[in-house]
Amino acid sequence: MSVLLETSLGDLVIDLEVETCPKTCENFLKLCKVYYYNLNAFFNVQKDFLAQTGDPTASGRGGESIWSYIHSKSQPSSSSSVPRFFSAEITPKLKHSTKGTVSMAVAPFAEGSGCASQFFVTLVDNADYLDGHQAVFGHVVEGLDTLDKINDIFVDKEFRPLKDVRIRHVVILDDPFPDPPGLSQILEDPSFAPPTRPPDAGTGLVVIGEDEDPLTSSIPEEEEERQRRAAAAQSSALTLEMVGDLPFANVRPPENVLFVCKLNPVTRDEDLELIFSRFGVIMSCQVIRDKKTGDSLQYAFIEFDKREDAEQAYFKMQNVLVDDRRIWVDFSQSVAKTNQLWSNDIKRGPGLGSRGRGGGFGGREDLVQTRKYRDEDGGSGGGYGMVFDIPSSGRDKDRGSRKRSRSGDQGGREKKRSASPRRDDRYRDDRRERDYDRRRDDDRRRR
Question: From CA 437, how far away is CA 94, in angstroms rounded?
Fold first, then answer.
């Protein structure tokens, strides 16, 4: 026989000792049935000892048995009375030996000793000094983590929690006892609910609500939303840094680079540079093109020498007609140009894995395939790390022309011999990479 207590810190499932303590279990189950414990606060929490609740007034002096409660509700004007307490069922074989032991609090005086509605849950093992004094009637079988949260809350000098912790709802999973007389009439009466007062019980102590954060309760809603967004952005940036998509979490996109999209496919680099150069000195202007076909992807990056020039171009060139297309201009959000560890221009070397210097993709070799486009032709090192061709620098062109001039007056066989030692390093690196990938694939197939 068990009951589910839904608290503001989590759920507790309590198994009851109905055979050993039938009267105590019946009292507890019927109080749950009339929602007596709903919104009751934990008014006494002693760390590594116990957490007490069951008093609607949260004063430690309230509460009554189910029979007294039924009589007070069904016959409020009757001169006869039903005792508030009932005799405690203290059984020697039921001890406070484990964490999560549930016991009825025994009142030693005032209207006779006995139990009413208040109960507590132990927060530590081997609380044997309670044996023989308090009436054990159940054990927590699910929700020990909830007990840990209750145990860690801050309390005042009288062990009252500074933050409101309550029983929100009670669900009876199994009830073997018949309803006592008058219980059904109370359930049909909408005014039967017991009074529930704040856990300070009129002491004047200010208690923090269960849904309040004392650090942000005085912050305006707009500022709280801004802080929430900043925390989410920082968390996402750390994740991207871990997987290698960002060089470091606090990286920021350059403020002097503009992103231009919705271009006409016929628009060239020099066309955009000529149009945007009236705002200031342009360091680079690149229309992004497809690697295989060479077709324009209809967007570009324009890097200005000064941030002020980029801002002026942003305000002036928005929605301007260029080659019969109205372009869209915004500040670049890409940080690939600053990510040298992730850059496609890093060469690989033997014995260093799939990447020449390690780092970057978190050791995942499948992500390295995205870098092979530019590595196969050798990147120029000045681009944005995208999948597109960057024109070779003038130094590479001059080097190629010098090769051709040196070998132009020799025969075919002489050309091969003279060109081979002067081959660029990137071709040897590419061949070494292909040999490495082939050996790796052979090893995987053999496994």
Answer: 69
